[in-house]
Structures are given as C-alpha cells and as structure tokens.
Specification:
alpha/beta, 7-stranded mixed β-sheet, 4-stranded antiparallel β-sheet, binds pyridoxal-5'-phosphate
Length: about 375
C-alpha cells in the first residue's frame, strides 16, 4: 500500500460526493429522495448554443488540440460580455483566460500564487474549494468571518493586522454563495482599495451574477481593481452549461500569464466546438437571462414555502440559485437536515459544510423542477399534520 502525498493527507472527500452516495443507496431502497442540495442547473442551454456545438463537432477540423489561451473568438466574446454587462474593458489578448470551469481556476490561481506557508484569507462561510486548494498548496488558510449582522461582508477594518501583513491572497465571492448576498459598488471599491493597501491579491469568484440579480457587477469595475484583483467567472450557472466546463479568469496581464503558466502544463485546451458554442452563449440577448430568471423566481417561491413549513427564516432578496435560511434557534444544521432527509426523503444542504459560520443555517438549491418542489412541500406538510 503506497501512502498518499502529504498535500492530500488532510483533504477530505467532497461532502457532496459522500452524501450523494448515501442518497443513491436510499433511492436503491426505494426512498425516492428529492435532492434540493446541489447547484447543478437542470435546465438546458439555449438551442442555438447546442446547435452550434453539434454543427461544430460535425466538422472534420475541430478535433485537434487547441491553443492553451483558447480561440481568439472566445476571448473576444468574453471581453465584449464584460464590457456589455459589467462595463469593464478588458484586452481580450492579454487580460482574459478561458478555463475548464471556474473550480479549475481556484486551483490554478492557488498554484500560481501560493507558496507553502503563505497566508490566504478564506470566507467563512464559503465555497469549500478555496480551502482545499490552500491545503493542497501547503498554504495557511485563515478564515474571515462573514456574519449576517455585517450583511455577509468581511469586516475589512477589523482584520488582525498581523494576518494582514502576512496575507498574500484573499478569496471573495459576490453575489455570495451560500448566503445569496449581493455586493454593492461601494463594497467592491473597498475591496479594491484593501487589495492595494495591503498588497493582497483579491480574487472575486463571480459565477452567480446573472441569477436572480437585476444588477450584475464585477469587482473589476471598481476603480483600481485591475492592480491587485482578479475575477473568476463561469458559464455553468448563467447559461446552464455546468457539465461543459467553461469558465474564465480576467484581470491584469501579468497575473493571467502566471495562471497560464500553470494551466498550460496541466490541461491541453478546450474542445473547439465547446468554445464556439460558448461564444454563441455569451452573445445571447438579455432575454435569455429574463427567461431563466422567471423560472428561478417561481422556484424560489416554492423553496420559501418549504422553509416556512420548516420554521426557517430567510432574506427574500437573495441572488444566485440557492436560498440560504436560518433554522429554528437551538437546532444544529446537520441534525436538522438529517431529520428532513431520513423522515421526509428531502435533501437540503447543512450550512456547516461551508464553514463554522454556517452553523444554524441551511441552503436550498433551486436546481430542481417545480414538480419536485411541490412533492417536497406535500411531504413536509404531512409532517405538520
Ligand atoms: C462559489 C462557486 N464558485 C465556483 C463554482 C464552480 O463553478 P464551475 O462550474 O465554473 O467550476 C461553484 C459551483 O458550485 C460555486 O458555487
């Protein structure tokens, strides 16, 4: 038996990977679990996008390895998209790098900038991949509290000065997952100034800005942000293309080049038909987002009904494809979701998988159809009767 490398000794299997196995077992026993846990869009991409994929894949010349930087048309479509939707001007040749999903970007950015022992600031609660990537680099993860009373925004003025001196990188994610909190323009200005003042690379992970959000924003729109900030973005959520693996990192040329140095030694480019179809998606009119959001708004109402039945409270103005809610006082998130799973066969996510500040909260995903939500409501209402 060969021992695994130290870098993964502390890394645990992803929560959902284990939980989904458990749900599969329950289903094999006939439980028919309704999964309101995971944020994988169930709706299809736009027809012109899938048509483009098929048409491109049927061409003989589209199957070779592709450039590590991707085709120029995709980089241009990304910079046009940033200009049109976020009012951010990017040089498509130097300041845009398509990725095989933004999760890949979390790892590549960490590999490009973190030495063993470097301090990286990570939001609590937050997307678990930031911590895992830090652990794999041998970096020191320091959690930054996000609290409801501070609108789930880090208290930048009161961070430990010693930590600020040693920190090299900081992850932020607005609109925030799991809390659904949107950033304001002032928040982004503060973050850009913070990055400059403390010489910290601040990376905003921005996959949710088009879901249930009237004002999509990019951290890169804040004055001075191009200096020390990067932004990850994704086509997984806004375009229903999660399985396609298309994301991007945008920002200063030197930083993008550093990430490219890692990436070009790990993957060998993105399938050309996927790139061409992604261009099609990025050029979709605003009505695409209106359509998707109409469905999510209806589902959100049903999710809120579930939370009402469960005695949870929530902010009705959240962004993104989840509803984050506070469970009744005195209960533990994991016990709470376990009871709902075992007794009613409905799976929702415990807030604790996003960090200790997620204790007392749960997250419901909107990636299930209305029929499933209605069945979940029926099951939960039966409990109350
Ligand atoms: C906050 C956050 N960042 C990144 C990702 C990964 O997205 P992608 O599919 O682009 O890798 C997710 C996916 O759930 C997420 O919630």
């Amino acid at each position: 038996m060969i021992e695994v490398a130290n870098r993964i000794a502390e890394v645990k299997e992803y929560y959902f990977s284990k939980k989904l196995d458990e749900i599969r077992e329950m289903n094999a026993r006939g439980c028919d679990v309704i999964n309101l846990g995971i944020g994988s869009p169930d709706l299809p991409p736009a027809k012109q996008v899938t048509d483009k994929l098929v048409q491109s894949a049927s061409q003989p010349h589209t199957h070779a390895y592709q450039s590590y930087r991707s085709i120029p048309e995709l980089r241009s479509a990304i910079s046009d998209f940033y200009s049109r939707h976020y009012d951010v001007q990017l040089n498509s040749a130097t300041e845009v790098l398509p990725l095989l999903g933004s999760k890949e970007g979390v790892m590549y950015i960490s590999m490009a900038f973190l030495n063993p022992g470097d301090t990286v600031l990570i939001p609590n609660p937050g997307y678990p991949a930031y911590r895992t990537a830090a652990d794999m680099m041998g970096a020191k993860a320091v959690y930054v509290d996000l609290k409801e009373e501070n609108s789930w925004f880090p208290d930048l003025e009161n961070l430990d000065p010693e930590v600020l001196t040693s920190a090299k990188m900081m992850w932020v994610n607005y609109p925030n997952m799991p809390t659904g909190q949107k950033a304001s323009a002032e928040m982004f200005v503060k973050l850009a100034a913070f990055a400059q003042k403390h010489n910290i690379l601040v990376v905003n992970d921005n996959p949710y800005s088009f879901i249930l959000n009237d004002q999509p924003m990019s951290l890169l729109s804040a004055s001075g942000a191009m200096e020390n900030c990067l932004e990850l973005n994704s086509m997984s959520k806004a375009f229903n293309m999660a399985g396609w693996r298309v994301g991007m990192v945008c920002g200063r040329e030197e930083y993008v080049n550093a990430i490219l140095r890692v990436k070009s030694n790990v993957d060998s480019g993105m399938f050309k038909p996927v790139q061409e179809a992604a261009v099609e998606a990025l050029n979709l009119p605003d009505s695409w987002f209106d359509e998707v959001n109409l469905e999510y708004a209806q589902r959100r109402k049903l999710a809120e009904r579930i939370l009402d039945i469960l005695g949870c409270t929530y902010d009705a103005k959240q962004s993104g494809m989840f509803v984050w809610a506070k469970i009744p006082v005195g209960q533990k998130s994991e016990d709470f979701i376990e009871e709902v799973l075992q007794e009613r066969f409905v799976f929702i996510t415990p807030g604790t998988i996003f960090g200790s500040n997620g204790e007392g909260y749960v997250r419901i995903s909107l990636c299930a159809n209305k029929e499933m939500f209605n069945t979940a409501i029926e099951r939960l209402e039966m409990v109350k009767a």
